[in-house]
Amino acid sequence: MARARWANKYRTGSETYALTTDAADDSPAARVQSYADVLDEYQVHPEPKSLAPDGKPAGWHGIGLLARRPVAATRLVHVNKEANELEEKQAGVVHPQEAVNEHAARDAWANIVVPTLIQVPRATLRRRLSGSRISQLRAGTLAPGPKAQTTLTKLAGDFARNKLREEGLTPPVTATDCCAAYLVVLSEPQRSRS
Fold it and tell me: Is 95 left (phi over 0), alpha (psi -120 to 50) or beta?
């Protein structure tokens, strides 16, 4: 380790640096993690993919058998193969638009919000929509303008948020994500519904 040198491959020139694992080292050396550093971090790292036995997200203090945390996709994004240049993008060598091209593949209104709105009681919908518009919504033919779509998305999100809380779950932040999470919970056969 004492003889190892580090060079920044994104900088021109042949400047290299000594490597050190000593956090208190003030010399112009590149600091790398030691095995002890990695083990110390591992001991208290969170486990975001798992749930603790009490059903809450697992943390470093959790005890017992962990369960897989359910994940619901709220949107799909197709990424071109140029994503393999992410390291170069982060270093500023490649322009971000050259490295990743995203293509939206899902209409959140039609696939997430409308199915949630269909679950909202008719009496609640009547506060925002006429009877014929509710029928259009339930038939999948309602095409509201942007302002009405925003209002109805908020209504669906509030409904979904309340239903998730009734299930003892912590709802996501955005209205669309609440709707997506609610639809996943709604599809789970083991949960009883009213």
Answer: beta
